[in-house]
Amino acid sequence: MLTDFPTLFDWIERLSFLRGLPAAYIVLLTGLIIAVVWDWRLSLMALMVQYVVATLLFVDVLEPRLAIVKLFVGLFVCLILYFAARQASASQSPEPRTTGKWDERAGRPQRTTLAFRTFLALAVALTALALSGRAGYRLPAVPSHVNLAIYGLVGMGLLLLALTTRPLTAGMGLLMIMTGFELFYNTLEQSTTMLILLAGANLILALTVSYLAQLSSSRPPTITAPWPKR
Amino acid sequence: MTSGRILILLGAPLLFAAITLILQRRWPRAAAIIAGIAALFLATQTGIGPDGQAIRFFDGTLTLTEQAAPSLRLLYAGASLLFLLSARWPQGREFLPAGLAALTPLSVTLMASTFPLGVVTLLAVTACAAIMIQAGRRDATLAPFRYLTMTALALPFFLVAAWMLGSDQPVFTGSVWRLLLVGTALALAGFPFHIWVSPVTEDAPPLVTVFTFALVPAAILFLLFNLLQQHPTVVQETPFLTFLRWSGAAAATAGGLLALNAPSLKSLWGRLLLVEMGSAVMLIPAGPNGQQAALAGLGLRFVGLLLVSLGLILLESGPAGQPARPTRRNVGAYALFAYGALSLVGLPLTPGFPARWATITTAALESPWLALLLLVAMASAAAGLLRWLSSSIRPPASDRPGLTAQ
């Protein structure tokens, strides 16, 4: 029967064993994966998991019916990025992944190895863990596990922005920073207007990032001489 | 009816954006002329009616106030001129639709009754500007992405500061000014967040640069002035102004010093623009008439940028797409570029001088070192420009008799 089909609220209830500190750790872990693994499929999958688990954190600071909006926005963001990444990867010229000298201004992968990124991401994760536990670094009115998630998301986001100029990867960093900020801001300000405006801001960011991602990864158009060849 | 005008100001840009998007593929010139006329028409709709009505927008209202009207007029008139110029010199397929679409959130920002509403809408403006900067090119995305990143990062600082100010708790006073300072520096390219200016001038089509640096900041400045007027304690009881001026002076100095070693004409432009932007940041809180002064400064910046961009367009319209060496044919373009650039530096007898003089006098009241720093920035920027011009006029090494003989 349709009435027996679980609603989104039921799903949140079923995932309640993840609420609290486990959710914060998963958010941190997904952030770490996005920062380290630059394969768009894995990154996008991690981002989607992050949005789902972040919804559990939003439930701790917002009314559940408002927190659901965050889930929908997150899924829409992932959908937008998915189409952009797929289109971009289809038109991408074959090139090595993370080795060799690459042009930063062309928005291509730079010379950062997996080991280097892992080291930096672990350093950021450890810093987030250390800082969020200290009383002096506790954000006002924020539960302690949400505090950890905020530090993790913002830290990993900033790391991604520092590591790459590829719009898709760096864009995920920007979106992670936004999620971290919203976790904090929604604790303070719970008006529906701001919820809608921030949802709009996320979607605008995702659309712009996907537009830039498609252009940066596309193969240059074939140039044909406008004059007859001799 | 003012409310009717507000609806026109919000709806018409989007409508014409759609029209130009359809038209420009086949008739790009007609699309540019339509966009220009539409923006000019909207500039005439910024007058305030006798009833002074407003419309509800989410929790707040959008009101066409006496304060907002001049900024809106500058915005629409400036955009109109840029659109019309793009009929002669196309600036990419995205320029007209994205430029017109950006006018709607810009208007919302200027008419918003609450600071958070205006700030969030600003992100939509930045998104449109990023699309214009990229101009459909399939290569570097550094410039638009950096620009987008900086504005997006400014958003949290502004929103949290606005919440703290709204809560009216004295305990937050110490945090608010710091948050506002970082947010302002991010959004207006204050030091050390000025790194997006030069990439944008290098990568964006010239008229898009004018749009991005002369029209978009009008909305940011307007929002800031309104906030500071509503909460004077930020100005009176914290060192916000002092730090903001130093941040602006540092950005201007960085621009001036970097101009001495600019690798290309467009990067030189970016560095000179940094001097202008830094000094504009220094002028932000200049007394009760600060808003008018800042708006006038933006108008003068618009003139300077327009001159430089026209000079660049003419110089780059050659077959190679690169600025040619000065000849009799392109000396006018060089003159336009040089005069516009000197205006950005703010030298006497140029349009940029009144704004720069106002900044110097304001800065001198705060600290003579600030004024000195700005003068150093202006001098080194002017030296960088002269150095570049003299190297352009000098014949290439291969043409010199001594070297060709070898």
What does this structure look like?
The complex is a heterodimer of chains A (230) and B (406). Chain A is mainly α. Chain A has helices at residues 8-14, 21-36, 40-61, 64-90, 114-133, 144-163, 167-188, 192-217. In chain A, helix 3 (40-61) runs antiparallel to helix 4 (64-90) and helix 7 packs antiparallel against helix 8 (192-217). The longest helix of chain A is centred in the middle third of the chain and has 27 residues, at 64-90. Chain A is globular and about 45 Å long. Chain A starts with 7 loop residues before the first helix and ends in a 13-residue tail after the last helix. Residues 95-109 and 220-230 of chain A have low confidence and may be disordered. Chain B has 406 residues and is an all-alpha fold. Helices cover 74% and strands 2% of the residues of chain B. A two-stranded antiparallel sheet of chain B has the order 1-2. In chain B, helix 5 (115-134) packs antiparallel against helix 9 and helix 12 (265-283) runs antiparallel to helix 13 (290-316). Chain B starts with a helix and ends with a helix. The model of chain B has no long low-confidence stretch (mean pLDDT 86). Chain A binds chain B through residues 104-107, 161, 165, 167, 170-171, 174, 177-178, 181, 184-185, 188-189, 191-194, 196-198, 200-201, 204-205, 207-209, 211-213, 215-216, 218-221, and chain B through 58-60, 116-117, 120-121, 123-124, 127, 130-131, 134, 136-142, 144-146, 148-149, 152-153, 155-156, 159-160, 163, 199.
Uncertain stretches of 5 or more adjacent residues of chain A = 95-109, 220-230
Helicity range of the residues of chain B? Answer: over 70%
Count of DSSP-assigned helices of chain A: 8
Q: Average pLDDT across residues of chain A?
A: 83
- Strands side by side in the biggest sheet of chain B: 1-2
Beta-strand proportion of chain A: under 5%
The N- to C-terminal Cα distance of chain B equals 78 Å
Shape of chain B: globular
Q: Give the termini distance of chain A in whole angstroms.
A: 75 Å
Q: Helix share of residues of chain A?
A: 55-70%
Radius of gyration over C-alpha positions of chain B, nearest whole angstrom: 21 Å
Radius of gyration of chain A (CA) equals: 20 Å
Number of strands of chain A: 0
Query: Would you list the SSEs of chain A in sequence order as H and E?
Result: HHHHHHHH
Strand percentage of chain B lies at under 5%
Main sheet of chain B, how many strands, which sense, barrel?
2 strands, antiparallel
Using the alpha-carbon principal axes, give the shape of chain A.
globular
What is the overall pLDDT average of chain B? 86
The helix-and-strand class of chain B reads mainly alpha
Largest sheet of chain A, described in full? none
Would you identify the regions of chain B where 5 or more consecutive residues have pLDDT less than 50? none
